[in-house]
Amino acid sequence: VTDADLGGFSQGTVNNAGSFAKSAGAGVAQVGGLWTIHNTGSLDVSSGELAFANSASGLLNDGAVTVTGSGTELRLGGGGGTGSVTVGADAALAISGSNVTVRYTLDGASAVLSNAGTVNISGYLDATGGASVTGAGAVNFSAGQIGGDSAVSLENLNWAGGTMVNTAGVVVPGGATATLSGSSAKRVGASGRFVVEGTAVVTGAGEIATTAPAANPSEISIAAGGLLDIQTNADLTDNSQPDRGGLLSNAGTFRKSAGAGTTLVEAAWSVDNSGLIDVDAGTLQIESPFAHTGPGAIDVAAGATIRFDGPVTGENNFAGNGAIFFNDDYSPGASPGVVSFGGNVSFGTGSHLTLEIGGAGQGEYDKLEIAGDLDFQGDLLLSFIELAPETGVFEPIAGDSFELITFGGALTPASAFDGAVLPPAPAMTEWSLSAQSGSLILSLNEVIPPLESGDYNGDNVVDAADYTVWRDNLGLGDGTPGSLAVTDGDGNGDGLVDVDDYTIWRNQYGIAMTVTPSLVRAAGAPEPSAALLLLWAASVGARRHRPGRRHR
After folding, report:
1. How many structural domains compose the chain?
2. Which of 11, 177, 212, 432 has the largest CB neighbor count within 10 A?
3. pLDDT tens digits, 516-542
4. Residue 113 forms beta bridges with which residues?
5. pTM for this structure?
């Protein structure tokens, strides 16, 4: 074939079990949309261009297709098959099918696209059933889709537009470099995956968008040793659509190396980090949930900023001298951890810092070590946890102290931790939370019980009115020391209004409380009725107070 066309108003199928070649003519030989070539032999393009029209079944290839020679090109619309396609150096293959029904499908393990030249994808290409793409030739992806269920490995990818919906992943292999260029959006669709094992560099301003529903999210996966380097202010977005979902999974390095502005990771993208998040310039703003799930870290260079507008979990460190902002929940994790920060740290209004305490020893409770300033406008929440299964939740005792935060710079405001939410203190103890000399320290102090008092109405005179308070509250309490007040009728602070408290009232009857009660005995106090004491005995039954233990 030279530059002659197969088309016009006629239609049909050409079955080629031998050799079909375009070997002469520098122009274009066109196969019309009503024609199908079914190749089980060889189809060779070595001169000019062989172009299949934009139809669903232009080339059915179960043989071998070869494109060779400088400036030659094979242009495919729809079709596909189990056969191989080889693109030689300086030759080109164009995939230009314009919709989901006009797509070229590599189907099966024998369907290998071997590229030493250039593949231009502006249409729809699928790889299924073990099909593969090999070779170091350039792949220019500008529109359409790359789909299927077999991984597509592209060693020299320029992604300028289009959507990846391949469920096994469009892969940038180790040692290879991909470029994400231009101002057009690069999209990842439902269950689609873009896998970076080598290096992917974002040089254009175009957003990386998920078009997947939240129930069937897309994924960008950075493998161990891989690098996704954003050299602009390009964002990861939800494609301006509601209920979108995506996952940024980083086991390698996710870097913002240039761009003085902000790169935004919108709330549709959750971030799962076990590698390095590296912010060298500008601001990385993450609206989505962020989880440290491995041994990785975050490194923020001096003058750069990372801002978390969604919840953050994990005990990984924050290196570098840059600024870190938390505007939502932050918790070091499900077990105690020590987290270091190399720069200034800010907790905004509405943020919550949750720290866990599993013991009194170093490493048994959460701790933040901040080299710079601490600006805390949020809420501090503390909770006790069980360090190991079946050991019981930690129970502090008087004298325990916990250095929760250290900071090398200034603390603002002065009232930063006044509203801290603390766990209940054990009986006869109280918490003290102090921020001074660069540390926030939580201490559990013993409360010295007051002297026994029968002044149950607080008028400084022990008289019949106090007996009325005792009588009305007889049987109150569960026996937890310190849980009741004297004005409840609990004169000895044992957490129970009982006959012992009557005895205190009787012994102090008639005295003014300006005199030490334990040194004065008064006579003439009335005895309670036997019926009243029986009623009290029946109400408390066999209650016993058992002392607490270190863990429960």
Report:
1. 1
2. 212
3. 443 333 345 555 555 455 444 544 444
4. 85, 133
5. 0.82
